[in-house]
Amino acid sequence: MIKRHGLSAVILAAGASRRLGFPKQLIKYKAKSLILRKIDLLHQLNIKDVYVVLGAHHLRIRNNLKISKNVKIILNKNWSSGLSSSLRCILNLKKKSNDLILLMLVDQVLLNRFDIEKLISTSQKNNSHQAATKYPDGLGTPAIVNYAFKKYLKSQRGDTGAKIIFSNIQSIRSVQLKNALFDIDTKKDLARLTN
After folding, report:
1. Which domains does the chain have, with CATH numbers?
2. Considering the entire predicted model, what is its pTM?
3. What is the pLDDT of residues 49-68, one digit of tens each?
4. Partner of 95 for a Cys bridge, out of 65, 99, 122, 141, CB 3.0 to 4.6 A?
5. What span, in angstroms and rounded, lies between the C-alpha atoms of 120 and 143?
């Protein structure tokens, strides 16, 4: 069973939002920026340690964050080399071998407490305590991974996300989270969110 004090969260938010044209992390939805919405969601879930991986626009985003002792910023200086560089930032986390990490993307704006509770519940039913969201093309984030996940990160390069890694892990359960299917990459996506 997962004890919340052994579950940390990592919000991947280092991208430049090139297709959108401005930092998606700072988009306001229901009066809060996407980055603050994710942090608040994790605090509602009583997740003690929250790490935010920033890169492009990091100063502007950091100025908009409520930094508390439970929120730590990780600066990804290699953010321009792709998503895998943000995932590799996890390698520097000092965690115990039985600790778990909840991986989240900043732009999956519709995810809510019930979605993450469902993910946690699914991971609790697995001996490895790992679970990932099921997509038509494989498994992805949000996901809960164990410490062994780190060994797969060293070889990741470019703009490949966790889906490639998850395809190599036998001991990961899948969960369907309808709200994870929507993310914001373009102005068209943003228009769909606000309409």
Report:
1. 4-194 (3.90.550.10)
2. 0.88
3. 899 999 898 888 888 776 66
4. 99
5. 9
